[in-house]
Inverse folding.
């Protein structure tokens, strides 16, 4: 399968058409941004790690009954996926308080939440991806109640699966962001990526941050954190 034409370039990935209208190729870049693109940088080798890690998780999730866009890895940085229209929601699951949750609700980072939480942001860079509730989602026709129901069910199942898979590698899954897409036949499937760019991973023993917060917060050894996550999962 070959890339034909660039459809889209995002902050961390490019998307290309193929000769099959139902399939596109994603290419992972080393570019990193934070704070809605205000902070920019490069994390050398990130694209290769995020491609491999996303495909690893998506394959396992498919086996547990979560439909995903993954078809086949084509190279270090390129993967063939199903073409979808992205539901314009960032779906965020949290197990432990951190990031915007800690800030918004005045909760110390690291507090174990009594139960996992789910929130939606409206995926719109011009507005800075504002938090949105389900009434707003339906009022704006961003997704139907049935679609939000399915997304919610998938998100919590993905949380259970990722939490236990990562725990076996000595990693605590703090929180993560998912994106879902709709196929031409209207099926809701998991899309985008699952990587240190989109998850908070803490070493279970030391609490060391092994994700993009090292870049966001200038903690140093950013590349090392991505490599360590790859080592924990793939040896
Ligand atoms: P937050 O605490 O900043 O809201 O982030 C929650 C989770 O979502 C965290 O794992 C990082 C991820 N995330 C993204 O993938 N993209 C984003 O643009 C933001 C702000 C967060």
């Amino acid at each position: 399968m070959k890339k034909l034409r660039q459809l889209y370039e995002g902050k961390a990935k490019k998307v290309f058409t193929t000769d099959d209208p139902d399939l596109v190729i994603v290419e992972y870049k080393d570019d990193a941004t934070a704070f809605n693109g205000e902070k920019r940088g490069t994390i050398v080798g990130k694209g290769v790690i995020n491609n491999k890690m996303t495909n690893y998780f998506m394959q396992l999730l498919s086996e547990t009954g979560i439909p995903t866009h993954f078809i086949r890895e084509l190279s270090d940085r390129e993967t063939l996926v199903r073409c979808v229209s992205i539901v314009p929601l960032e779906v965020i699951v949290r197990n432990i308080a951190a990031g915007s949750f800690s800030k918004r609700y005045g909760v110390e980072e690291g507090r174990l939440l009594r139960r996992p939480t789910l929130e939606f942001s409206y995926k719109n860079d011009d507005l800075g991806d504002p938090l949105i509730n389900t009434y707003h989602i339906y009022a704006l026709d961003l997704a139907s109640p049935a679609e939000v129901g399915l997304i919610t069910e998938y998100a919590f199942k993905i949380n259970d699966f990722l939490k236990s898979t990562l725990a076996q590698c000595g990693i605590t899954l703090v929180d993560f962001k998912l994106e879902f897409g709709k196929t031409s036949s209207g099926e809701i499937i998991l899309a985008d990526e699952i990587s240190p760019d989109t998850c908070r991973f803490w070493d279970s023993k030391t609490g060391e941050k092994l994700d993009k917060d090292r870049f966001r917060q200038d903690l140093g050894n950013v590349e090392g954190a991505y490599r360590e996550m790859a080592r924990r999962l793939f040896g």
